[in-house]
Structure formats: structure tokens, C-alpha cells
Amino acid sequence: MSKLRTAMAEEAQRVSDTLYFWQAYEPAVRVDLSCCAVRSADGWILIDPIPLAREGMEEILELAKPACIILTNGNHARAAEHYRQALSVPVLAHEEAAAELGIPVDRFLKEGDVICGGVAVVELTGAGTGEIALVSPCGLHLGDALINLEPTGLMQLPDKYCSDAKNLRRNLRKLLKVEFTLMTFAHGLPLLNAPGERLVQLLA
């Protein structure tokens, strides 16, 4: 079993029957690390998972089996290796993210892939290495391309962390064609109130 080195969340918040969310503050990077479990036709998809207390993960797994782990960029290995071993599920990520992740990737993802029971992949070049977003039946799931941290709220990843901020902004406009009722992030709370309108305002 791999040793966990990332801050652990004590509990997960149930957003809906198909979405759980948890986060914890990571002193090493001085920011909240957020993640979620999305229930698809194949079971639970763990997106950029950080450690969750055993009782919290057991609560989620009582509802459905785990299907896979998806990492949205090369900086989000987090607790993926631990949960790959603990739950016997594959890790999926963009091919460009693989080297930076430092853990084996069982399947590479690319633009247009539909995986794990109906989750679509959108490439967001210009953010982190191998950055992708995911569109599931319950919402739009972001890695670092968009963040939702106080006090600024919804915003594009700051330029200093982008490989090409202008290119990222162009690619983010692809998300305007997507229908969704909520957004989740790798940094920040889920956005439940008019997320589509908020995205339009951000990218106007």
C-alpha cells in the first residue's frame, strides 16, 4: 500500500446522489486541494482524489463500486496510487501528463474520448501539463484551468502557472458549448448557482 503524503479530508460532502466532494488544506502549497467522486453508469469515478478518511470513503463505496481514477493534469498524482492499490481500479490521464505524474497511467485520454459510462474528455491546452476537463451527466469537472477559491471566486488559472495563458483562454471557450448544472474544481468549492452564466461572464 502506498504511503499518503497529502493532507487528508475527514469527511466528504454529499452534493447529490451522483456526486460527493471533499477537500483539505495542504500547507506545502498553501492552498485547498479539492476533489470529487462522480457516479457514472460504470460506478464511481474519483477525479484528482486526495486522501479521505476511511469512514468517508466507505460511505461512498456503499452506494456503488469504484470504476476508475481520472487525473486532470500532471500535477495531480495526489492519492491516486494509494487508491489504485486500495480499490483495484485503473488510473487515467492525458499522455502528456504521464511523465510529470510520476506514477503509472493505465490508459491515456484525449479530446473527444467518452469513458467510464458516459464521461467526455475536453483538452485544455495552455494550463498545466496534460490539462483536461471532464463532462459527466452530473456536471463539468475542472482541474487547474479554472479555480474557485475565496476571495476571488471563479477565475482562470493565474498566468504565472499557465504554459500559455492566451491559448488556455481560447480553449476554455470550448466549454461554452457544454451543458452542465454544476462545476467542480481541483481547487475550490463546487459552483452550484448558475455555473453556465458565471462561465460566460468570465470568458466574455
Description:
With 204 residues, the chain is of the alpha/beta class. The protein contains 5 helices and 14 strands. It has helices at residues 54-61, 80-87, 98-101, 165-172, 195-203, and strands at residues 13-16, 19-26, 31-40, 43-47, 66-70, 91-94, 107-109, 114-115, 119-123, 132-136, 139-141, 146-149, 153-156, 183-184. The strands form 3 sheets. The chain has a 7-stranded mixed beta sheet with strand order 1-2-3-4-5-6-7, with helices on one face. Strands 8-9-10-11-14 form a 5-stranded mixed beta sheet, with no helix packed on it. The chain has a two-stranded antiparallel ribbon with strand order 12-13. The chain starts with 12 loop residues before the first strand and ends with a helix. 44% of the residues are buried. The mean pLDDT is 95.
